[in-house]
Amino acid sequence: MLTKRIIPCLDIKDGRTVKGTNFINLRDAGDPVALAAIYAEQGADELVFLDITATVDERKTLIELVRNVAHTINIPFTVGGGISSVADVSALLNAGADKISINSSAVRNPDLINELALEFGSQCIVVAIDTRFLHDEHIVHTHGGRKPTELRTIAWAKELEERGAGEILLTSMDTDGTKAGFALELTAQISGAANIPVIASGGAGSMDHFVDVFTTGKADAGLAASIFHFKEIDIPALKSYLKSKGIDMRI
After folding, report:
1. Where are the domains of the chain?
2. Is residue 57 among the annotated active site residues?
3. Which position among 130, 176, 212, 220 bears the catalytic label?
4. Is the distance from CB of 129 to CB of 170 less than 8 angstroms?
């Protein structure tokens, strides 16, 4: 059985780490390079860096910041935000990213997933799904959660796998930042529908929420931001707790 992963997420706006609730009301959470170093030292399995306004501002991810983070850490590092071409991915991998995450550009041009998987290998390509429950259905959103699409979340997850995505980063906008727990039913549905790893994001507020998402939600990884940034949960303590609950972790 594969070990489950704990992944802190750095949401970046104007070069700073920020965190909000339901994708709004952002507050400052510190310097991304310093936070990245702390998480690597604490035993985080991976790190995700999302330039959350790159698509909205129609600009590229902050390459220099990516380079600085990559030089500071020794764990796998995924970067997303404003990526829309092979050249964008190439630049980020050259700057030290191990994987890239696309969202809006994948919805706009699904063939991009095939193209990137072919060029760089599926193991490099994470496709993020920001989803909200609307009109009795889970609907994919783009542009940092600002724009609803016509895509149904579960069908889209299956398509991502077929097109060559290596992982899905699933964020429930309904639970994001609430600390009320992950969207377990949806996570389990996506984990059951796709045969690629699912990273669950949105709603972590306690250690038991991670137990739930790895058992009931069947996720491969649990991603969180504010509980780590504001020192509400300590990564080594979380991993020890999960191990004590019979969940296989890398300690």
Report:
1. 5-244
2. no
3. 130
4. yes
H helix or E strand, kind and range, residue 224: strand 221-224
Burial of 106 (0-12, 13-18, 19+ CB in 10 A): buried
Note the pTM of the prediction, 2 decimals: 0.92
pLDDT digits (tens, 9 = 90+) for 187-202: 999 999 999 999 999 9
By the 10 Å C-beta count (0-12 exposed, 13-18 middle, 19+ buried), 193 is classed as: middle
Q: Cβ(12)–Cβ(51) under 8 Å?
A: yes
Helix, strand, coil share (%) of the chain residues, nearest 5: 35, 30, 35
Query: How many secondary structure helices (H) and strands (E) does the chain include?
Result: 10, 12
Catalytic hit among 11, 45, 88, 220: 11
88 assigned to active site: no
Q: What is the dihedral of CA 32, 88, 201, 220, to 10 degrees?
A: -110
CATH classification code of 5-244: 3.20.20.70
